[in-house]
Amino acid sequence: MPFLHSSAIKPIFLPMPILLMSFLLVLSQVSVAEGRDYCEGFNEIDRLTVAVPGNASFKTFVNITPENPDQKYSGFCIDVFSTSVNGLDCELPYTFVEFYGTYDDLVKNVTDKTYSVAAGDITILADRWEDVVFTVPFTESGLTLVVPARPGPKGWIFLKPFSWDTWLTIAAALVCTMFTFWFLEHREPDNTDFSDPRRNVQFGNALWFTFSSLFLAHREKIQSNYSRIVAVAWLFLALVLTQTYTANLTTMLTNSRLQPKIWSQAKVGCDENTFIKKYVQDVLHFKNVITIKDEYEYLRRFSSGDITAAYLESPYAKVFTNKYCGKFIDTRRIQRFGGFGFIFGKDHSPLAAKFSKAILQLSEDGLLTRMERYWLTPNDCSESMEDTASLSLRSLWGLFVFSIGTSIVCFLLCLGHLLRNYLRHQNNESGPTRNWMQVTRSIARYFWDAEITHRSPSSCARVVHGEAEIRVEQQG
Questions:
Q1: Does position 259 have pLDDT exceeding 70, yes or no?
Q2: Calpha distance 29→118 (Å, rounded)
Q3: Strands 117-118, 48-53: pairing kind
Q4: How far apart (Å, rounded) are the C-alpha atoms in residues 312 and 275?
């Protein structure tokens, strides 16, 4: 019985360890299949050591908060690095380590393998390229001049919407239209606004009628058909001019306070932690260069007048002008650099290539642009601080040609009617032969003094010459 009992138990309990081991092996294989393999040379014990600048000038890029262990490292560069790690095709454990020193010293520490990687606002330069491996840049970089903004001169700003040649053309069109109105309307006997016996009153009413049409509805009546055609062309020109002037002046009044202050080369500021100081002194030949440690000192130095301008890398300038929107303006980019990139040691070149691919993927997906907007330019500030240019004649010459051309054509048509009537009158008169000078003087006096005796379909059909009435029968 004991033998039988013992032999009966063995088939039941001996296979259990084997089944348990098999189950664990299958479960581990499923877990590995669902996850990612570690990048070559790294695991949870051998982690990637990433140095970050501990004294970054602009905390927007790298910010270290020891009192917040859950998010001790933050900023735009940290966000880009972490997101790039998630985009790799392998699992990469890493640890951030603070580094306090210059950026050139940080590059040297990666070169001598003190750190595996450096992540931060590190500019790609030719001198740094020799000893380390850079990823592709994840933001542009260049030297930008930042100056305080101030209100521009307002005394004569009302003349700036149009250029000087446009103003002269407006004056010429005004005079041409005024003369045409006077010439066409002062011949109407029923039009008391233009047919006053005094010439100065006639010209004054014609000038007032033409000029006031730019701003308000005129009360003077026009009776000549030619005058109505001229009025339509002139009022169309006036409408476009007033609307354009209003829009341009509004834009100038809005942007005038963003014009840069007159800048002196006496004192300029730059970042003490970057290569900018050497560049400003050696390349731009500035002697009075003041090094500044952070963005808040830039504000204090500007406020106290210690500096009149600051040379910042383009990403810094974008952050600074956006944070203090309307107070400072980046005027122009002096020079271009390689941009910000992550640094890897020479022995980690394959890993640097994977990071470059991940950064390019972020850029192509538009995620990098959204990250820049979130971190660098969160405020709704206009990036274009340039003054609005005056509207030149090149933009409006077609309108002037239309208006002035209409006035000239109507004037010539009326003149043709008067000349035809004059020739008919001369053909009906008999008298001594006159030379060309007398004929010219007679025609000029006729055009100047002729008045309409009564209204007719054409205001240039019935005229009197001097004191003798000329009655011309209209041809059907």
A1: no
A2: 35
A3: parallel
A4: 11
